[in-house]
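Contributing new complexes? Match this layout with fe (ii) ion.
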Amino acid sequence: MPDTPFIDDGSNLPLSELRWPDDDLTRIPDWIYTSDEVFQRERERIFFGESWCFVALEAEIPDPGSFKRSYVGDVPVIVSRDQDGEVHVFENRCAHRGVEFCRDLRGKAENFTCPYHQWMYDLSGKLMAVPFRRGDRGEGGMPKDFKLEDHNPKKLNVTIRHGVVFASFSETVESLEDYLGPDNLEQFDVVFKGRKLKILGFYKNRLQGNWKLYHENLKDPYHATLLHVYLATFRLMVAGQKSAMICDESGRHSTMASAKDDDIEITEETASQMKSAFREGMELSDPEFLNYVQEFDSPWTVTMQIIWPNLIVQRELNTLGIRHIVPRGPNALDMYWTMFGYDDDTPEMDKHRLKQANLMGPSGYLGVDDNEAIKFLQDGFKHSQDGEGIVKLEPEKEGSTQTLISEASVRALYRHYREVMDI
Ligand SMILES: [Fe+2]
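Output block (do not edit by hand):
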């Protein structure tokens, strides 16, 4: 039985009849999170448009023949390394009847064979063989003019930066460097440049919310000091500490950065504003859990970078990971988390990173709060009529900011979004 009766919130109206309220970026209409038509346009214009989408870390496909099943938007793709070491990304869709033919999450293969009619593809995604192509004993089979090379799965444009593989359906997309812009490129390179990665593990979970809510969550430092008891109580992020939101010029990418400061004085006023999250006097029984081993050339102890439209690069103290967003219609997303360290890490550092990884993931000390908040948001959107949200904090700014108490980067994102989506 549904929890509350469904009310039409405009999600079923044609897009042509939906208008952004008063053209005002401080107001976000609920229907951008619930409309099927909006979601279809997002697929076409964002995920299949002029974007670079994350698909894999090279460390996941280290050898010739290594492959990984991945997604661009919700479209299944295969990321593979051929015998010459070149990385290919192509649709995981059999040219015959559309079956997602590679079924293993990752592994090593000489080729891929569709389970249904055994059509076979090589590591670069070329169709190599069709059983009974000439029929059996002179009967049946494909037409005489059938050519294998006319039936390759769609190949995507590929770019790799410091071991991170991105793909695009667009042939005209700008370089990844131009796409990210100088400031976000710099933050990206802090994590990846010159270091070989070591994969430490994976998580996967489904969130009952629209995929854009995850972007908003990481462009909204305001919630961090109010929702996350762990973050505030153990002073990973508290109002008053040094922090920044570093946006690119387009408004689509951003890095939420902060510097842990154990000596910061929490005034009575600040503590009372954060009263739901800040628990005075609480202590960890294992204080080493939150140790920060200085290892990066950066003033920030935490950076959460979100690269439009589907990648989060997480550097929270010494726990490193990427999160890959796979939208599942307007009302859900799948999150694929990959935790990693560096190839030259000591066994102690591996252990430290794995321990700190408990902060994140489906039930992480921090991650779990966001997962739940995103569901609460979506429930609100689904069961309201003509609803809209307000994002007015720090009204004089749009984009980068130095304070946690701001929604300036959420507004910057929606300026970009409305341009691309033409709504
Ligand atoms: Fe959060």
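Reviewers usually confirm one structural detail per submission. For this one: The radius of gyration is 23 Å.
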